[in-house]
Specification:
Helices cover 39% and strands 18% of the residues. The protein is an alpha/beta fold. Helix 4 packs across helix 5. The chain is globular and about 65 Å long.
Length: 320
């Protein structure tokens, strides 16, 4: 979460140069050489520091820059608020910063901002710097009402995530109640996504997988099922169909690349440990299915993986 501080503390801002002249030639040379990167108008950071950030953290940094530049107070909302609260998303983060303004003001989206006109008195906000930000609950409901079903489920799952450091951002009952009270645009999809949401999805790809599994007509799986390995260690699986003794797992590449997930191990060591874990789990079940990102982009691929391993479905094989 980056609600209290930005991801990066070292940012070069031209307007904060204390009146000293800016060496534009040197600035352009460093930009051309890839040493620094422009993250907002007049704001630059070291390339190495920027590359270490996740896409969500990069968007949060841009929100902080927008807050520092804003001439008058505004309310950070939608995906911009999601980045500050640590609610991740599928796909690319927006190039603009979402803010909510009073519907009567007539402001339009332009430049670095995407403006959402609505009665500000009807939304929940908290102070943020000299501006405001929608609360985690308001942010989740805004996204449920304004995005596709799968994106809304991802946002809701992230807000409800029970294993989040510090605990979930919102309570399931409160999210459902607020989603069912949405009127106008999004009044149909918000309750549906809120009802489908869970606190047990550990990643956006697990949430996406869960949505696709349901759309393909497969039975609802048990999430984070507990198994005990031979050495006494616990293993929790992404998906498990008890009646079929069938485990399903999304295999993300991050566990083999992200230093935070490697925890000092080499990618080869993590790969071998994952293989050993899978072998032990396979000995306890009838079927074990594993898929990667291409299967989420092609529903037919995931359908073939699960159905080919014996999992029943109520839907025909998709065309693509």
């Amino acid at each position: 979460m980056w609600i209290d501080r930005p991801p990066l503390t070292t940012v070069f801002r031209r307007r904060e140069n204390d009146g000293e002249p800016v060496n534009d030639r040197r600035l352009r040379a460093r930009l051309a050489g890839g040493e620094i990167v422009r993250i907002a108008r007049g704001a630059y950071v070291e390339r190495a520091e920027w590359d270490r950030l996740t896409p969500m953290a990069r968007h949060a940094q841009r929100v902080w820059e927008a807050g520092a530049r804003g001439a008058s107070p505004f309310v950070v909302s939608h995906w911009a608020a999601a980045a500050l609260h640590g609610i991740d998303m599928l796909g690319r983060w927006p190039a603009t910063v979402d803010v909510s303004i009073d519907a009567a003001s007539g402001g339009r989206s332009s430049g670095a901002f995407r403006r959402h006109g609505r009665p500000l008195s009807e939304i929940e906000t908290s102070p943020w710097e000299r501006h405001g930000v929608t609360t985690p609950l308001q942010t989740a409901v805004d996204l449920l009402a304004s995005t596709r079903f799968v994106e809304g489920v991802v946002a809701a799952d992230q807000a409800l995530w029970s294993r989040r450091p510090g605990g979930p951002l919102v309570e399931a009952a409160a999210l459902r109640d607020r989603a069912h009270s949405v009127t106008g645009r999004g009044s149909a999809r918000a309750p549906r996504a809120a009802d489908f949401a869970t606190s047990l999805a550990d990643s956006v790809r697990e949430s996406q997988s869960r949505v696709l599994i349901a759309l393909l007509g497969f039975p609802e799986p048990e999430l984070q099922a507990r198994f005990v390995l031979a050495d006494g260690r616990e293993a929790f699986t992404d998906f498990f169909w008890p009646q079929r003794r069938h485990i399903g797992e999304f295999d993300g590449a991050g566990k083999y690349r992200d230093p935070a997930l490697l925890k000092g191990r080499t990618p080869e060591e993590v790969l071998l440990a994952e293989k050993d874990r899978e072998d032990e789990l396979r000995r306890q079940v009838t079927a074990f299915s594993r898929w990667r990102l291409p299967a989420l982009r092609s529903p037919r691929m995931l359908y073939d993986i699960l159905h080919g391993a014996g999992l029943p479905t109520s839907r025909p094989r998709p065309g693509r």
